[in-house]
Amino acid sequence: MEELRLLNDWKAQKLWKLLDKKWELAEYKKQKAGELLNVLVIGAGPCGLRSAIECALLGCRVVLVEQRDRFSRNNVLHLWEFVIQDLKSLGAKIFYPKFCTGSIEHISIRQLQCILLKAALCFGVQIHDSVTFVQLLFPKKIHNTVTGFRASIEPKGHILAEYDIDVLIGADGKRNTIPGVFLLEFLIEPKGHILADYDIDVLIGADGKRNTIPGFPREEMRGKLAIGITANFVNNKTPAEERVPEISGVAYIFNQAFFKEMYAKTGVDLENIVYYKDDTHYFVMCAKKQSLLDMGVILQDNDDVSKLLSSENVDQEALCRYAQAAADFATNGKLPALNFAKNHRGNEDVAMFDFTSLYSSKCSVRLVERMNKCLLMGIVGDSLHEPFWPTGSGCARGFLGVLDTAWLIREYGLNKRGPLEMIAERESIYRLLAQVTKDNMNKAMNKYTIDPRTRYVSLESTLQPEDVVQIVSSDNPRLGKMLKSWQPPQL
User: Fold this and answer.
1) Per-residue pLDDT for 87 more than 50?
2) Of 356, 352, 366, nearest to 318 (Cα)?
3) Which parts of the sequence belong to the FAD-binding domain (predicted)?
4) 325 CB-contact burial (10 Å; exposed 0-12 / middle 13-18 / buried 19+)
5) I need a labelling partner for 460 at 20 to 30 A (CA). Which of 69, 133, 358, 371 fits?
6) What is the DSSP string of 418-470?
């Protein structure tokens, strides 16, 4: 890293000035807060990479593992203003000069990952692609020495196989590979990876809906049947394409004439539609089931949503025609060609999904102690709280969860408060996440840090230490006794 600082290029100097300003924030205690912690982050999505950056700023030794070997997600994220400011503070405009230059503030997931990857590497994060977190291994005694918590990974023999972990953060979405407190086996693929012997203090699960970290029970919020469609078309960036206006969001209840005309002319019946122009022409819409049946997209009706939208019950070519018709009508036929971009499998990048049910984890962290070794586990991003896409809140709430988790890791590293008190504070803050909107956060966005008080207007401790006893597990008689007999202090 020191060699990079010697570059005379003006962009490099401007970047280091930005990153140094972040590095020197008082909250990070000159990188002393996390200097004793080994952190493993699972997943290189936006929230996983953002978590890794925060842990590095705290002074932690940070390792991130990602199952895939490339960034290939074309879908586009809407960005709240504080997220834009946050990314600019990490050099987004230097890494990607076109960042947020359009009429609507958004970015493709792939481009966002590229920006955060570069920033993470500048802060010293160690990143391993093509590595799968399998399960967690809890401490054991070898030759009179007790190992720390470790990850079993694939491929076998990887350098991470011997990496002791202090904090584990799951950002792998619904997959959630982080185990519960009684399932502490940690495997990583490929076998024999260097991480196999890496002792872990903190484990962060950030692998989206996949969420490979079990032990974080989820709550389901069900609504009426809602079927979403995403479609990405090739953007050749021609003058004709540049002139087509974006659509920040059109809903049926506000523009019934538009949707009725669309249905009359194309047979496509929608609740809403959004169009963002980025690396691709990105469309996302909510379709009515009957029109999907009428247009032959869904072959047979079924009350079971999983069977209704199963690959066997969907005509992929009809789905492509449906999405093209919607996109063509919404843009008044002004996009010269609607050729699908390719997804990571090399197929047309169009997908249909169910968002009738949204899931949120019942807790955001867990603390486990075995043989006097402690592990803090957390989940962020879609693993923690699945967003309702029409609100455009996914990336914003994801980043808020990342910053809140970083604050907990800071407090954990400083070790000036008891574990139950710290976890109760974190869980109280987590309860605010689903209620956050653009309008009810602190207005001074330039002052946002990992300290929750800089971001949330109303910050109350709704949970007490006795309320979080069930998410802490210990074989230490001292702590075990405290967990069983804890009493609130007398006022």
Assistant:
1) yes
2) 352
3) 38-73
4) middle
5) 358
6) -HHHHHHHHHHHHTTGGG--TTSB-S-GGG--SSGGGTBS-------GGGGGG
Helices of type H across 58-128: 81-89, 92-95, 109-122
Residue written as token pair 């449906």: 322
Count how many residues are written for the chain: 491
Backbone angles phi, psi at 240, to 5 degrees: -60, -40
Q: Are residues 73 and 194 in the same domain?
A: yes
Burial of 180 (0-12, 13-18, 19+ CB in 10 A): middle
- On the 0-12 / 13-18 / 19+ scale of CB atoms within 10 A, 415 is exposed
Pull the structure tokens for residue 266.
Answer: 């194309």
Unique residue bearing structure tokens 């803090």: 376
Tell me which H or E stretch contains 266.
helix 256-266
Report how far residue 149's alpha carbon sits from residue 138's, in angstroms, rounded to the nearest whole number.
5
**Tens of pLDDT along 336-349?**
899 999 998 999 99
Write the CA distances from 419 to 117, 148, 376, 408, 475, integer angstroms: 32, 19, 10, 10, 15
Which tens digit of pLDDT belongs to each residue from 184-241? 445 667 777 777 778 889 999 997 776 677 678 888 888 889 999 999 999 999 999 9
| Residue located via tokens 């059109």 | 250
Cα gap 304→319, rounded to integer Å: 20
Give the model's pLDDT for residue 392: 77
Number of domains in the chain: 2
408 pLDDT more than 50: yes
- The model's pLDDT over 453-467, given as tens digits with 9 standing for 90+, comes to 999 998 888 899 999
Please indicate, yes or no, if residue 294 is contained in any of the structural domains: yes
Tokens 């980025």 locate to 278
For 232, the domain range is 224-355
Three-class secondary structure of residue 253 per DSSP: coil
- Indicate if 111 and 68 belong to the same structural domain: yes
